[in-house]
Design goal:
10 helices, globular, Lipocalin
Length: 612
């Protein structure tokens, strides 16, 4: 009969005679004991109170880790620390990392990097496991049942996976192995890149060395291509390519650090992008620093790879890979003019970094931050949120429901919001919800809607593709332009919407390289002065948008004047914001030298009448 042996029971069986099937345990109080495991499948113990060392005799092995449970299975052997898995003939080597404390971040890096690397601060991480190598094309194909293109080396890192795709890969891997692999946290990644407890005192600039050529493939030595993993020197933990070769996803959203000490931190919410680490074969030396962090949209795949992590504990708030890979929006029934997915319960709120939104079922609404707005709310076509003040002034937000606990919005002044459904107590700026003594009938609220904004279901399904909102057309000699350095990015964007119906959405790198590309092009039209569609060969690029005026300059990148804002959905970087300023259409913003190709790098998708 199989038995469960707890820590307390283990202490009681010290007197058992040792048999051949035994495992040694080292307790933190210094005692060393052995227990008979001839008929034991699972051993439970309090985290941090016991360490397993040595090999299990008679081919017993630790084969899965779930919370504080180690499961033993016959007919396999494995070291109690480092271990390997095999999936369809491909080996995964995992390295045990003893937890510790280190200083994360960088205070003496370039000014442009301090936004996401400083202030440096103390971080403590628990024990975890990390893959010795980046996920290779060979491993990716073995798990996903795919084949590589002819130019992809089997043992080179798999590149071209977005954050959702990375989690989908891990989801399938877990189904095949029975383990709980996951993405590393940002804190775990940097601790491992610095070499763990062995490497921290050395304070290397790159992972394992101050000489980048010893440990990394990057722009100056890669010949413009990725290389097989493990062909440069490892760091102190025996990990390869933590600097260079391929960017690596981590779990965290990217926001600035704070200076207080942290234990097992993971950034579960954010206002823009996830975090990528490690640099790449085609990026400059500085990007490969162990503290370097860069933004990346969850839907962005270009240049992106991943590395596996695993721990004996599930960190609070992290979603399982299968859930993270496929976020689901709430399904509910309600009025077509009050999107029930947005309604907050009695103790709920949509909480962001600088704003909180409350939308009650009775029609009362309030949002804090800038600007503060309150009144009665309604929605149009599940994509336009409108709050009517007591004075009859309507504030409109284009919104996108990303999942049951995440929405994005943007107003006509270009104020973006990424909000998460949380308890009200988690809000730093809870707004005051108005008391609606005489609620206005929805029909009355909607009577005031401009004809251009009111769109029937029939018009949504079969739009007039000749309709173009004149507010977002390019004036003669001007275009819409965004300098990404406003928001910590490394790109410039141009969105040109010609009066003749031609449209082009372009991304440009600062270093004027081959990475400059078209994101969308074709013929444009608008629906309800809130949805922008660009049609190319019968397919579409879909956006929600607002148009307004910035009344003052926030910086050289965000000047005052007319603005055009959009949220992408179902094609390029879902839920992400772009805030464009009206800019002269001169040589500074036109297609630069080295522009790569005439066709968009992303394929258009089906026409989407709704942003779901």
């Amino acid at each position: 009969m199989k038995k469960i042996v707890t820590f307390a029971i283990a202490m009681c069986i010290i007197s058992l005679a040792l048999a051949q099937n035994s495992m040694n345990f080292h307790f933190n109080n210094g005692k060393k004991e052995s227990i008979n495991i001839a008929d034991i499948d699972t051993i439970h113990f309090p985290i941090g109170e016991i360490n397993v060392t040595g090999k299990v005799r008679k081919n017993y092995a630790i084969t899965s880790i779930d919370s504080a449970t180690f499961t033993l299975k016959g007919n396999q052997t494995m070291e109690a620390k480092n271990f390997s898995d095999t999936v369809n003939g491909v080996i995964i080597d995992m390295v045990y990392v003893e937890g510790g404390t280190y200083i994360r971040g960088c205070d003496n890096c370039a000014e442009v990097d301090k936004k996401y690397e400083s202030p440096s601060h103390q971080v403590t991480v628990s024990d975890f496991y990390i893959a010795k190598y980046e996920v290779t094309n060979e491993l990716y194909n073995a798990v996903m049942g795919t084949t590589s293109n002819f130019w992809e080396k089997k043992k080179a890192p798999k590149i071209g996976v977005n954050w959702f795709g990375a989690n989908e890969f891990i989801c399938k891997l877990n189904e095949l192995t029975g383990r709980n692999y996951r993405l590393l946290t940002d804190a775990e990644w940097e601790f491992a890149a610095r070499g763990g407890n062995q490497g921290i005192p050395k304070n290397h600039k790159f992972s394992g060395s101050n000489n980048i050529d010893e440990v990394a493939w990057y722009a100056d030595n890669s010949g413009g291509q990725s290389h097989e993993v493990g062909t440069k020197a490892p760091n102190e933990l025996g990990l390869y390519d933590m600097s260079g070769n391929s960017w690596e996803w981590v779990y965290d959203w990217l926001i600035g650090y704070t200076e207080e000490a942290k234990t097992n931190p993971v950034q579960l919410t954010g206002s823009g992008n996830k975090t990528r680490r490690g640099g790449s074969y085609d990026e400059p030396e500085d990007f490969a620093r162990v503290s370097r962090r860069a933004i990346r949209s969850r839907d962005g795949a270009a240049g992106m790879g991943l590395r596996l992590g695993l721990s004996t504990t599930v960190l609070d708030g992290m979603k399982e890979p299968c859930v993270a890979a496929n976020p689901q929006a709430t399904k509910c029934d309600g009025s077509e003019y009050r999107d029930c997915r947005l309604i907050t319960g009695e103790d709920e709120a949509w909480v962001g970094e600088s704003a909180t939104l409350l939308l009650q079922e009775d029609g009362a609404a309030a949002i804090s931050g800038y600007p503060v707005v309150s009144g009665e709310w309604y929605t149009l076509n599940n994509r336009s949120l409108n709050i009517v003040s007591s004075k009859g002034v309507t504030t409109t937000y284009a919104y996108y429901v990303f999942s049951e606990d995440e929405i994005t919005m943007i107003n006509d002044a270009g104020m973006p919001y990424r909000l998460y459904k949380k308890a009200k107590s988690e809000s730093k700026s809870l707004p005051t919800i108005p008391t609606i003594t005489n609620p206005t009938a929805l029909e009355k609220l909607i009577e005031a809607v401009e004809p251009e904004r009111f769109v029937t279901a029939e018009q949504l399904a079969h739009p007039d593709t000749t309709v173009r909102d004149p507010r977002i057309m390019a004036d003669d000699g001007y275009t819409w332009f965004m300098d990404g350095r406003c928001c910590g990015g490394n790109h410039k964007y141009r969105f040109h919407l010609s009066p003749n119906g031609d449209a082009e959405f372009v991304v440009m790198d600062y270093d004027d390289t081959y990475k400059e590309n078209i994101l969308a092009k074709g013929r444009w039209f608008t629906v309800g002065n809130i949805a922008l569609h660009i049609m190319l060969n019968g397919k579409y690029y879909n956006y929600l948008y607002t148009s307004g005026t910035r009344t003052f300059s926030n910086s050289e990148y965000l000047p005052e004047g007319p603005i055009f804002c959009h949220i992408s959905f179902q094609s390029y970087e879902r839920g992400d914001f772009r805030i464009f300023s009206r800019t002269k259409y001169d040589d500074k913003v036109k297609r630069p030298r080295g522009f790569n190709g005439e066709n968009p790098i992303h394929d258009p998708v089906e026409y989407q009448p709704y942003s779901e």
